[in-house]
Amino acid sequence: MPSVLIVEDDRDTREMLERFLELEGYRVRTAENGQRALEELERDAQACVILLDLMMPVMNGWQFREAQVRNPKAAKIPVVVVSAAGARDQIPRIEADGWISKPVDFDRLLQTIGPLCHGT
């Protein structure tokens, strides 16, 4: 079963994504900020994709991504930004593998993460 790590500070959004992906057959782990996500990856770096919000307290998405790529356990995990922030021009800087705007279009979410998790 493919595993997804959701890094999102808004509890409602985090839980909605978690429930949806579980219903679609994914194993889901969550973190409410970048620091918690790094801790989660230290415990278990198995994930086919990380869904990453940008605007979060404690450690934002850009800070998380900088730390993630320096971590040999987690550096290769693809990242899809899921954000309402109008910063699509920041994708090259954050080196994301995809971008999904909020509110989340679930069909687009599945189309984006499917190839990363299933190689399709």
CATH superfamily: Response regulator
What is the CATH fold-level name?
A: Rossmann fold
Distance between the ends: 15 Å
CATH class: Alpha Beta
Global morphology: globular
Sheet/helix structural class: alpha/beta
**What is the spatial order of strands in the main beta sheet?**
2-1-3-4-5
Say how many strands there are: 5
Mean pLDDT: 90
The portion of residues forming beta strands comes to: 15-25%
Count of separate DSSP helical elements: 5
Rg, alpha carbons: 13 Å
Sequence stretches where pLDDT stays below 50 over 5 or more residues: none
What number of structural domains do the residues give? 1
Helix and strand string, N-terminal first? Answer: EHEHEHEHEH
Helix-residue proportion: 40-55%
User: Tell me about the biggest sheet?
Assistant: 5 strands, parallel
Mind telling me which CATH architecture this is?
Answer: 3-Layer(aba) Sandwich
How would you sum up this structure, described in words?
With 120 residues, the protein is of the alpha/beta class. The protein contains 5 helices and 5 strands; from the N terminus they run E-H-E-H-E-H-E-H-E-H. It is globular, with a radius of gyration of 13 Å.
